[in-house]
């Protein structure tokens, strides 16, 4: 498949309330309307998938607190608008606007080695989409307050 990804612009700001308590906010606009089709090269020929996505916004904020010099906690919230067109959906993206609530822990093992753990709970609002298959047949699919879980772990080393 050939896909050109859209442009996006992000504005963010952080504020340090105290030495151990910080907050941040971000606002992102993504030009999804430039991603009009994806062309899949299949043995039977090129099969274009029309997307008709719309530009979308994403806003989030979070807090970080240092419990000790080596151990910190994080919590945040993000609201992510669905770029899918209401009458021309696909199953490539979870339908509906998304609420993302996350938290995490960070531990400095050594001065230059860090372990971070995170968890996000995603709530997708109810939505109805119409999807056209490659034969021009329209299919209706809907979600009713779907949700997803994401767990993460990373180890980082700074030079």
Largest sheet entry:
7 strands, antiparallel
Enumerate the strands of the largest sheet in spatial order, edge to edge or round the barrel. 1-2-5-6-7-8-11
- Taking Cα atoms only, what radius of gyration do you get, to the nearest Å? 20 Å
In whole angstroms, the N-to-C terminal distance is 38 Å
Could you list the spans in which at least 5 consecutive residues all have pLDDT below 50?
A: none
Average of per-residue pLDDT values: 87
- Structural category: mainly beta
Bulk shape: elongated
Q: Specify the helix fraction band.
A: under 10%
Total count of strands: 11
Strand content: over 45%
Order of helices and strands: EEEEEEEEEEE
Enumerate how many helices there are, as a single number.
Answer: 0
Lay out the secondary structure.
Elements: E1 8-18, E2 21-30, E3 37-42, E4 45-50, E5 56-66, E6 71-80, E7 98-110, E8 113-124, E9 127-132, E10 138-143, E11 146-157
Characterization of the model:
This protein is mainly β. It has strands at 8-18, 21-30, 37-42, 45-50, 56-66, 71-80, 98-110, 113-124, 127-132, 138-143, 146-157. Strands 1-2-5-6-7-8-11 form a seven-stranded antiparallel sheet, with no helix packed on it. β1 (8-18) and β2 (21-30) form a beta hairpin. The two termini are 38 Å apart.
């Amino acid at each position: 498949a050939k896909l050109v990804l859209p442009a996006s612009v992000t504005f963010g700001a952080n504020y340090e309330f105290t030495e151990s308590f910080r907050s941040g906010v971000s606002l992102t606009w993504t030009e999804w309307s430039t991603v009009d089709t994806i062309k899949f090269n299949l043995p039977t020929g090129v099969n274009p998938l029309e997307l008709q996505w719309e530009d979308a916004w994403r806003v989030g904020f979070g807090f970080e607190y240092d419990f000790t010099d080596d151990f910190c906690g994080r919590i945040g919230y993000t609201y992510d608008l669905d770029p899918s067109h209401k009458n021309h959906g696909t199953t490539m993206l979870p339908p509906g606007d998304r609420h993302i609530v996350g938290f995490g822990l960070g531990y400095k093992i050594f001065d230059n080695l860090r372990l971070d753990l995170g968890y996000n709970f995603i709530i997708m609002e109810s939505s109805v989409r119409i999807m056209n298959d490659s034969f021009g047949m329209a299919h209706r699919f809907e979600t009713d307050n779907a949700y997803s879980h994401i767990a993460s772990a990373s180890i980082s080393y700074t030079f």
